[in-house]
Amino acid sequence: MTAPTVETLTEGSVTQQALGRLVVETAGQGFTELTEPAARWVFGTGILHGILTVFCRHTSASLLIQENADPDVRRDLLAALNRLAPREAAYVHATEGPDDMPAHIRTMLSGSSVTIPVTEGQMALGTWQGLFLVEHRDRPHRRDILFHLIGA
């Protein structure tokens, strides 16, 4: 294991913040890749080095950083979530339909925000990593995603 390197921003650099919003129309349960729109937004801020927080403003959809090369990974992840939070279980909360409570559980397991380092004006994702919104409900939804970038 090698020690982490230390990169110091230029002396006197000014901390900046940028806020953004992305509205995503989902087709129902499944993954929607957000890597490209997020990357374009980050680049457009002019902030070269910092931390990007991406937040989903919903309790039945989540955000993940996951492999974006092989779609079989996403199919297997959905199958795993279906096993962990099946629709046919006897949930007390069923007012919004049989897919609602499992969606809340799946969001609890996968999370509503991610943090991504930004270097040279780009998200510092790995070679096969992508940013995804995961819709846990069966029918289409409009999802509100917020971006907050702080850096210099």
TrEMBL record:
SUPFAM superfamilies: YjbQ-like
Family: Belongs to the UPF0047 family.
Domain of life: Bacteria
Gene3D superfamilies linked: YjbQ-like
Pfam families (UniProt xref): YjbQ
The protein, known as: YjbQ family protein
PANTHER family: UNCHARACTERIZED PROTEIN YJBQ-RELATED, UPF0047 PROTEIN C4A8.02C
